[in-house]
Amino acid sequence: MGKKKKPAETPSLFDEEQPPAAKQPEAKTEPAELPPLPSGVPGLRADLGPSWHAALDPETRKPYWADLAKFVSEERKHHTVFPPAADVFNAFRYTPLDKVKVLLLGQDPYHGPGQAHGLCFSVRPGVTPPPSLRNIYRELESDLGIPPVRHGYLVTWAKRGVMMLNTVLTVRKGNPKSHAGKGWEKFTDAAIRAINDQKRTVVFLLWGADARKKVPLVDKKRHVVIESAHPSPFSEHLFFGTKPFSKVNKALAAAGEEPIDWQLPENTEEE
Question: What pLDDT does residue 46 have?
């Protein structure tokens, strides 16, 4: 039996049909000092973990959040939006704030069917790796001698401390940057600031002009910023040879952190 559709009175970032209030145990995760959420405004999913909740719950009390929730809800009613609602916050789900060692920053999700699942540059198992990801694999082999795997599913990196965050977390099918300027940037800037506030050294891996605009949010006295061109085919000639993976591991080792194991499993299933 299918779900009974309710009137679209409650904006939701997470589920296309049910009001988020029925799905989120907010009382278990909200800091006591925060005021209640306005009626009909979704909070953060409880499964994002306490470290991200502590950092980002205050954003859900700001006016832009309610506007963003309404916009995304309306988009899902009238258009196909990627990634699926349940995957929007996967970057936060797979890499808790207190486990972030590297922040790899992307722009907005893939806008083709079946590709985006909440991690920048990553695609679902069984989906052919897009050109930018193939270039990332090519540079990984050149840099560290790690041959490319056949899939493009990067969750293993995320679980090893590489947070793969887009600056915009949703997009309309076939229309890149269609959800830019609607509020996501304020939310992800808050996430970047939260990572910057961590006491340990974090490596910020910024590929392309959009990612490099975030440099002012990073305290370079405490953290390491590695910038280069984007791995897109349009700028691949500037990306190849930049050796980002070995630079990340060198920076982590210098900070007393365990380097990232960049080897992905040859066979993988969606998690």
Answer: 86
Instruction: State the DSSP string of 137-170.
Output: HHHHHHHH--PPPS----HHHHHTTEEEEESS--
**Helix, coil or strand: residue 132:** helix
Copy the structure tokens of residue 269. Answer: 């299933």
Alpha carbon distance 235, 252 (integer Å): 27
Query: Can you name the residues that pair with 166 across neighbouring β-strands?
Result: 106
Residues of the chain under the 50 pLDDT cut = 1-11, 16-31
CB of 82 closer than 8 Å to CB of 57: no
pTM for the complete prediction? Answer: 0.88
Do 90 and 153 contact (CB within 8 A), yes or no? no
> Measured between alpha carbons, how far is 205 from 212 in angstroms, rounded to an integer?
9
Q: What is the rounded distance in angstroms from the CA atom of residue 205 to the CA atom of residue 165?
A: 11
| 261 among known catalytic residues | no
> Among residues 15, 57, 108, 210, which one is catalytic?
108
In 10 A of CB 246, how many CB atoms? 14
Q: Alpha-carbon torsion 142, 266, 233, 231, what sign?
A: negative
Alpha helices (runs of H) in the chain, residue ranges in sequence order: 26-29, 50-56, 63-78, 90-94, 131-144, 155-159, 184-196, 209-212, 236-239, 244-254
